[in-house]
Amino acid sequence: MKEVILVKLGEMVLKGQNKNAFETILIKNIRRRLSGLGDYKVEAAQSTIYITPENDFCDLDDAAEKVGKIFGIVAYTKACIVEKDLVKIQEAACDYLENDLLMAKTFKVESKRSDKKFAYSSPEISREVGGYILSKFHHLSVDVHNPDLTVRVEVREKDAYIHGDPKEGAGGIPVGTGGKAAILISGGIDSPVAAYMLARRGVQLTAIHFASPPYTSERAHDKVVRLLRKVRDYAGRMKMYTVEFTKVQEQIRDNCPEELATVLMRRFMMRVAEKVAKLEDCKALITGESLGQVASQTINAIACTDAVATMPVFRPLIGTDKAEIVKTARKIDTFDISIEPFEDCCTVFTPRHPRTKPTINVLEAAERKLDVEGLINECMENLEYIWIE
Amino acid sequence: MCIYLDNSATTKVLESAAKKAYDTMLLNYGNPSSLHSLGFKAEKIISEAREVFANIIKCESEEVYFTSGGTESNNTAIFGAVKAKKRLGNKIVTTAIEHPSVMECMKELEKEGYIVTYLKPDKSGNINKLDVINAIDKNTILVSMMSVNNETGAILPVDIVAPAIKKAQSPALFHVDNVQGFGKLNINVKKLGIDLLSASGHKLHAPKGIGGLYINKKAHIVPHSFGGGQEKGMRPGTESTPLIAAFCEALKNLPDANKELIRLKELNDYLRAELCTIEGLSVNSPVNNLPYILNFSTLKVRGETMLHYLESKGIYVSTGSACSKAKPSHVLSAMGLSNKHIETSLRVSFSRYTTKEELITLLDEINKGLSSLAHIK
User: Which of B58, B62, B159 faces A62 most closely, judged by CB atoms?
Assistant: First the structure.
């Protein structure tokens, strides 16, 4: 039995003039995400994208799972392709949806006919197919208002399609339609969620990670790579830069007041991140901060951090509770990795009593004891990156 | 000459897999739990293997646990699931054609007071979907079903189990013994709603002594041994990095499952058709079985006699399952076949190396054997 994946487009349909550009990017994203899974033809017609396997070696379930994580899709379903012949449609409906029909107590058939030359009208198709199903599955009864299963028949130009209830897609808009931004990623619970949220708004990501060997280990780095692989399932491939940050942290420890260490470190991160972001033509930074969560995430501290940034800094989690963040982290499957116990660069040099209301003057005074430019340049010279494919 | 047609019993180890084991023993000998880089290297070998395994059944890599093989995986899954769910019911559903490593667990559980339903196959060797649906109720705590029968190659309706559990509002966990299907038949655990799945390395050209168990992260089961917390406490004990590395290598070199199914289906159909032309011979494998296996009865010469005759010609086959040698097949008797069928049955099982020429030789020798060997009364 020949199968296909039908994809219903999301809010991008509403975007008037941009519709074609968005659709083109979405098709490109689907193709890229399915590459390596077999040969598929991906094409659009009538607000639906058809993903058709080119041979028998394609695993459509696998492809459908990937499609479920692509932004810009509201709903998708696997369907079987049948010749436009009523008897064949009846048989295929019973065959293709056998398990669903065995499990359901009530069902209805919904038909659509875009090929008006087809000999039966939509209500007629529904009646004929429904009647045939009833004759094959004696335990079933019809319920048009609240059925356990809706059998859908679509008679289109070339073929007819049969499927059950479609699945909800990932929503959002296609990655690549919303510009580029760089996410500061630590290894905790929040930053992967922040990355996911902006990718969902079409942003193409670059990741920046700060490492402090030997205080942080190779395993901590590996943890971030694994987190980004989970994010990649939604956001597509991205570059991950690793900044060696040990010297900056040691200099702060040796020369500045302990209670300012975290905010000073955040300011350095912003400065370096902005330089890295520019390498990738990113126009904004993204962080996983949520207001009041820790000392460096108070309004005053954030004001001091942002004072050194010239790009906009997006904080999609700013007003969310930890519980909500955890919920999303579980959904995108990063939570279990995030809670693995490795030191990251934020936890190593944490002051015992951080200042919650620092001022820019105090911070600037502290920074005068450091060679800010030199330290940043050193970070940039030792920069490394890998592709998260 | 060696024509090896007993690949469902075990397979020859892939050369590059054997080499991986050897290299790992000599070079990457660190303990995966050690903090230093030699330890991390060993850990990476294991995490790569986990990913490769996960990709075959479409689960997350953190849901894969390495074990010593199919038997341990089945035991861990079945006892672990029953122990975790014992307060919620006392019924277990399985089939009458499971492998001994499932069957014997069930007998132990029956001794402990659990009520086990053994679903029987029909005459052709298939398990009926409606039987599965009707067997599961609110007191069922475990359904254990193999994906492919090891003697006949029958493909079981594992796709109906999860929906049936849901429909019955049963708390049951769903275990699949996928030892014969792993890497051969596409099984998507998420789509099929499988909670536990067993696999073995040595059926796929990896060494003996290594296997895997998938545990859905939403399913909780109780471990049977305790120790240093390896494999998230499910299977403590220092991981066998060399065998895991070899397993990974074998899996990475698997031919495309779908392409191989198509190729072997042709071979299986050919052998089936040719065997059917032999007078009196009857094929016991259902139509549309996994084409890696073909079971038939000559009805003339005892299976074991024929086996030794073929062996003298350099052809290796088996009588039913290698794990219950000399015992009459419980699978064929569950199908309701006569003693004569069972006594004269043979199983040939293919691998990616099996060729049509080998099957032509096999047919030739079977014909010769049938005309020269003493027939049973």
Answer: B58
Q: What is the pLDDT of residue B230?
A: 93
In CATH, the architecture of A3-170 is 2-Layer Sandwich (3.30)
Q: Is the pLDDT of residue B322 over 80?
A: no
Query: Which sequence spans correspond to the domains of chain B?
Result: 3-11+255-372, 15-252
3-state SS assignment for residue B345: strand
The CA–CA distances, whole Å, from B330 to B129, B288, B300, B319, B325 equal 21, 21, 20, 12, 12
Q: Does B159 touch chain A (CB under 8 A)?
A: yes
Q: Which helix (H) or strand (E) holds B213?
A: strand B211-215
CATH architecture of A180-388: 3-Layer(aba) Sandwich (3.40)
- Domain ranges, ordered by start, for chain A: 3-170, 180-388
Q: Which of A102, A218, A222 comes nearest B129 by C-beta?
A: A102
User: To the nearest whole angstrom, how far is the Cα of B63 from the nearest Cα of chain A?
Assistant: 11
Return the residue in B34, B58, B169, B194 with the most chain A beta carbons within 10 A, the one to mutate for interface testing: B58
- pLDDT for B327 beyond 80: no
Task: Give the architecture (CATH level 2) of B3-11+255-372.
Answer: Alpha-Beta Complex (3.90)
Task: Give φ, ψ of A76 to 5 degrees.
Answer: -150, 160
Chain B nearest CA to A59, separation (Å): 8
Instruction: Work out the minimum CA distance from A105 to partner chain B, whole angstroms.
Output: 10
Size of interface A-B (CB pairs under 8 A): 45
pLDDT at A11: 64
> How many angstroms separate the CA atoms of B25 and A177, rounded?
50
pLDDT top residue among B245 and B229: B245
Residue A62 confidence (pLDDT):
85
ipTM for this prediction: 0.73
Interface residue B232 vs chain A (CB under 8 A):
no
Q: Are the beta carbons of A196 and A235 closer than 8 angstroms?
A: yes
Q: Looking at chain B, which residue has its C-alpha nearest residue A137?
A: B130
B15-252 belongs to which CATH class?
alpha beta
Q: Which of A103, A331, A340 to mutate to probe the B interface, most B CBs <10 Å?
A: A103
pLDDT in tens, B32-91: 999 899 999 999 999 999 999 999 999 999 999 999 999 999 999 999 999 999 999 999
Q: Which amino acid is it at B43?
A: E
**Taking Cα atoms as reference points, which of B112, B68, B104 lies closest to residue B86?**
B112
Q: What is the pLDDT of residues A47-68, one digit of tens each?
A: 789 999 988 778 888 899 899 9
Question: In this prediction, what percent of chain A has a pLDDT beyond 90?
Answer: 76
- Mind telling me the catalytic residues of B? 323
Asked if the peptide bond before residue A214 counts as cis, ω within 30 degrees of 0, the response is yes
Residues of A in contact with B259 (CB under 8 A): 57
